[in-house]
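Session log. Operator J.P. requested a structure for one protein chain; no other inputs attached. Running the standard single-chain path with token output.
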Amino acid sequence: MANSTSGDSVVDRILRLIAAFPEGVTALQLSDLAARAELPLTTAHRLVRQLAGHGLLDVGPGGSVSLGLRLWELVNRNSPTLELRQAALPFMEDIQQVLNQNVNLAVLDGWEALFVERLSRRGSVANRAQVAGRMPVHVSSAGLVLMANQTHAVQMDYLDGFSDPTGKLVREDLGALLGEAAHQGYAQLAGVVDPDTWGIAVPVLDRRKRAVAALGVVVPLREVRLQALVPALQTAARGIGRRLGESRETIEFHSTESM
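Structure written below.
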């Protein structure tokens, strides 16, 4: 229930505070945090003090504010992606050992691919996919293969609302990419995010044949070997799906199918 002059509820303001930390920034001064969350300084101060009392935020020397360990603990303890990551990691490690390149795991959240795990090592090519980072569906092979495995209604809803800020991709071409990914069983994008890399991803299907995740690799553009990469990824994806099927409880991942 709203209890402020702006009409925001307490929950709205708390979420704005927590979400105000930009990627890669571990601490902010209270005044900066209030400005980023678009809250009055007095309101931000009161909420930060209350959240810090529960360990969800930490207040350091000089009044700097950072996300608290309690928040990390709660998210990781109950995250619906925890079992997915645990099932996938052994297979991701195998793929990385063979390729010596980046391996990532993503789920679909709205019209974006949300990356929940990534493995990389020194010498790997650049990979813009970061854990807890997002990419629009149309610029990531993981996003494309996930959308290609959604229902026809979901795909049409996505395509009807699609617009490319760069103007490089039109609805018809994106529809063709989704159709190609659905037919081939994998998606590939060359030089879209980085001109020197190639992204390839396959769907991870649960026991009901729903695409719950995408397993992908990012490799140098000059070293693409689809005839070797795709079967290896598909074998690993089937293994992840089997491990998920062994779970005693069905995992419900947030998907656009339920929107």
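Operator note: The two ends are 24 Å apart (CA to CA).
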